[in-house]
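Record type: ASSEMBLY
Status: queued
Input:
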Amino acid sequence: MSNLESRLNPQVVELLGKIRSGEYLRSVKVKFIQLKWVFLGIAVLLALILAVIIGRRLSQKSAPVYVPPIIDISTPTTEVQKTSAFDSLKRSLQLFSPQLPDPAIPAFDNNLNLEKINN
Amino acid sequence: MRKIISSLLIIVFLLSCFFKTAPFVRATAKEDYEFQLSQYRKSYAEFSQLKRDYLQNPTLDNQQKSVIVAKQALSARDQAKASFARYLADLVNGHNTGYTAFQPILTRLSEAVVFYSAKAQESQKITTPSDLTAFSNSYQTETMIHDRSFAYGQVAAKIGNLIRFQIDAQNILNTIYPKLPSPQPIPLKARLDEIPLTVEAINEKISDLLAFAIPEEEDSPLIPDQYFSKFTEGLVDIRSRQSILIDQLIDIDINYVQP
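Status: finished
Output:
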């Protein structure tokens, strides 16, 4: 036993002895084999999460715009506009202007002369 | 003899060709009025210029030129007035109403045509500036009553237009009467009973309005704004009543006549 080992905790010395002999590695290996499905499951879960994150990033970078096709489901309404024999008369009445004078009475000079006062 | 007959035949043939191909151009009253008015405006502008020249430089030459152009302006003015009266009479008659109450106004318009045509001739006798002054002085008093006829004609033309609507509505109503269902449903009967009352009320309004067209006193020149304003109000009222009547007729036509 070296001087260093004499100064260490006996438990640590025991652990070092196990590592050196390979006993510790074996126990770890056994435990890993026992829990291998758990590790595999965790790995698969991480892979899935990673795939989702990567997929989302890619989709955000070049988001394809989805344009839904225009489906004309509205049926044209055929509203029958009824016309009357009086329609043209109504239009004529609407166009009638009650303003007077119509036509405008032109301005005529009723006092044509050559006198200075009227110039 | 044969030569004469053949040449006569050629002349008759040529004349018949001319009458067949030459278009008969007959100006309407409106076109005639517009032409006469343009002639007056042209000659009046020329007269105004020559009058200025004459007053600045009163030579015999300038005086003669001014009198000659003044005569042209007077003739054009009175012919324009005569054609305006004809045009207004044409507007009144154009509605083919046969409304006898228009007759006094039409008479006044025809009197105006005669008066202005005579004045257009009479003015051509003017030879001096004093003749021109005398002519204008008497003209101003004589023309007042005939100038007023223009305003009456305008009112009659507008009322005539509204009467035409009334007659047209009645004509169309007569054509749809046989198509109405028999026996008549109660709502239809109520509406049909209402029509004569509405028509009668409109006719009264028309008659009342036209009664004021020629005022009792005509001893002063007519003030257009004052005169026309009351008629414009009356025309608006009649038009709105006729509009309601036509809406009622359209309703009957659409709901009871059409399948």
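Annotation: Chain B touches chain A through 57 residues (CB under 8 Å).
Annotation: Residues 129-176 of chain B form the longest helix (48 residues).
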